[in-house]
Design brief:
There is one protein chain. The chain is of the alpha/beta class and about 325 residues long. The chain is about 30% helix and about 25% strand. The protein is built from 11 helices and 16 strands. The strands form 5 sheets. It has a 4-stranded mixed β-sheet. Helix 2 packs across helix 3. The two termini are about 20 Å apart.
Length: about 325
């Protein structure tokens, strides 16, 4: 394998984190609370012995607020930048190691299939690569980082709903996508899941549906409470995972943890809230919560069972969710 994308639990040099910076047309009334939630995440990531957090701001006003909230916190570097919005997992690069060392693998970005075309989002990967001091290896196909999950040995999880959607790379088949992933990301095996969460503008990103947590171990949700509109998608993902092996031929162990259940959005529909959108940091796992309740408590217990050597922390993400995602969506790890 000429290219290796480390698993998220491998040691990090830093964690990139987007700071909400645009009120007009993006966050509006939720901006202040989203900034508070991101600041809490930054503090948790930069906890004793954990991460260097590279907090990227997108406007002068965003930088001012970031410095007001976090400017004196050890381990947090505020990096002025340019972006349309905070979703660095999707607009930023995927770091990989090859024969010539580390590179930042960049991809074309088209606003999640043309839904949200924002100025500067297509420049984020180059900005992060330059700030990290690594070469940007640009690839001429559309891919968001939240659409793929890695186990560090060349196994990739993804969903057909997103990656094979004609609003990304028209004409792509599984074979064409797998060839592209092999070249750009060192994929030796791709595990295809089906539908993602309902009302997810990403068209089914896998980081809301299933995640590698250890070699040969994957977590995915189980429906919780009445009104969970994603029960069938969760069960289908679990069934596909249970019948799969990783790139080394190891059968996957599937651990199921409760979903948040019905979380209503501003439009009255179910929001794409997911406990799967946790971030694995050096020594900690930080999971988004969407209000108090048994679902979050049980999900935290489930994650603690698969991360016995990490502090497992739940933090509110309701305001961030109004923008369409959560903790994993606004971060990107820079491996050590």
């Amino acid at each position: 394998m000429t290219v290796i994308v480390p698993a998220e639990w491998a040691p990090h040099r830093a964690m990139w984190l987007g700071f909400p910076s645009h009120a007009e047309g993006v966050w509006e009334d939720e901006l202040a609370q989203a900034q508070v939630e991101v600041a809490a995440l930054a503090r948790a990531l930069a906890g004793p012995g954990r991460e260097t957090v590279r907090l990227m701001t997108g406007t002068s006003g965003g930088e001012t607020m970031a410095r007001r909230l976090l400017g004196d916190v050890a381990g947090i570097e505020i990096v002025p930048g340019r972006f349309g919005d905070v979703w660095l997992r999707d607009t930023g690069p995927i770091f990989a190691r090859g024969p010539d060392g580390w590179s930042a693998r960049g991809f074309r970005f088209n606003g999640w299939g043309g839904k949200y075309d924002m100025e500067f989002d297509d420049e984020v990967a180059a900005q992060i690569a330059e700030a990290s001091g690594v070469l940007l290896a640009a690839h001429d196909f559309i891919l968001e980082g939240g659409a793929v999950d890695h186990d560090g040995i060349g196994t990739i999880l993804t969903t057909g709903q997103c990656v094979l959607n004609p609003n990304r790379n028209p004409g792509w088949t599984q074979a064409l996508a797998e060839a592209a992933f092999q070249d750009a990301l060192g994929a030796r095996k791709v595990i295809w899941l089906g539908e993602g969460l309902a009302n997810d503008h990403t068209d089914g990103h896998v980081d809301n549906l299933a995640r590698f947590v250890a070699p040969g171990v994957v977590v995915c949700p189980v429906a919780f409470g009445r009104g969970d509109v994603n029960g069938a998608a969760y069960d289908d993902a679990a069934k596909r995972l249970a019948s799969s092996t990783d790139a080394d031929g190891r059968p996957l162990k599937v651990v199921r943890i409760p979903s948040p259940g019905w979380i209503e959005g501003h439009d009255g529909r179910a929001s794409p809230a997911s406990h799967m959108n946790f971030i694995i940091a050096n020594g900690a796992v930080i999971m988004p919560t969407y209000g108090e309740g048994q679902a979050a408590d049980l999900a935290l217990q489930g994650l603690q069972s698969v991360f016995p050597d990490h502090a497992v922390i739940g933090l509110p993400s309701s305001a961030i969710l109004t923008g369409g995602g959560s903790f994993h969506c606004i971060t990107q790890q820079e491996p050590a």
